[in-house]
Design goal:
It is a single chain. This protein has 2 domains: 122 residues, Rossmann fold (3-Layer(aba) Sandwich); 74 residues, Thiamin pyrophosphokinase, thiamin-binding domain (Jelly Rolls). The strands form 2 sheets. It has a 10-stranded mixed sheet. It contains 4 helices and 14 strands. The chain is 16% helix and 32% strand. Helix 3 links the parallel strand 5 and strand 6.
């Protein structure tokens, strides 16, 4: 089951049509309902504390409201619901940008999720934590950054990138993996140990 979570990042409203994929279930996280309306998507569920939507949630849509003073963010509650529903893939759109603290927390939330493909998807590209084996597809010239988040990452190998890595270590306190580049329409990235964040930036946005 592929579940789409829509968040409240103000930058995402510049994306006029939104993601083109179809989804089995759509969860709007508070102000993410604005994205659903912008893109003509009908959400299956809405949750949140109402601080970013500013209006009452529509009566005709299943929902759950939470108090503003709570231990979890709305994003964490939405991820928990998607996992409890048995999602095999989760796409988060509208969760990067805006408040830096929320963006960092959202990255941390997905960093230890196992056996479920989780990605952030925006008009400018995608962000996800690497498995042992990963494929990144796009246009030649797309920027691909490999970021060892939280810890060193061992056994990194790449194919299809301008600056290849051969069983190397990316250190958490170094910036070596930033701004690599696709030289083919598909790159293969492998790693052995550690949390490796892959950030793909579409060429047209890097050149803009």
């Amino acid at each position: 089951m592929h579940i789409l979570l829509l968040g409240a990042s103000p930058e995402t409203t510049r994306w006029l049509h939104g993601p083109e994929d179809s989804y089995d279930y759509i969860i709007c996280v508070d102000g993410g309902l604005k994205l659903a309306k912008l893109w003509g998507r009908k959400p299956d569920f809405i949750l949140g504390d109402g601080d970013s939507y500013k209006e009452a949630f529509p009566e005709e849509i299943n929902k759950r409201s939470y108090p503003s003073e709570k231990d979890e963010t709305d994003s964490e509650l939405a991820l928990t619901k998607a996992l409890e529903m048995g999602a095999t893939k989760i796409t988060l759109t509208g969760f990067l940008g805006g408040r830096l603290d929320h963006s960092l927390a959202n990255l941390a939330l997905i960093s230890l999720i196992k056996n479920v493909k989780v990605q952030f998807l925006e008009e400018w590209g995608q962000v996800f934590f690497a498995d042992k084996y990963n494929e990144v597809t796009g246009a030649v010239g797309d920027t691909v950054s490999l970021i060892p988040l939280f810890e060193d990452v061992e056994g990194v190998n790449t194919q299809g990138l301008k600056y290849p890595l051969d069983n190397e270590i990316l250190y958490g306190h170094k910036s070596r993996g930033i701004s690599n580049e696709l030289i083919a329409e598909k790159a293969i990235i492998k790693k052995e140990n550690g949390r490796l964040l892959i950030v793909q930036l579409r060429k047209e946005f890097v050149d803009a």
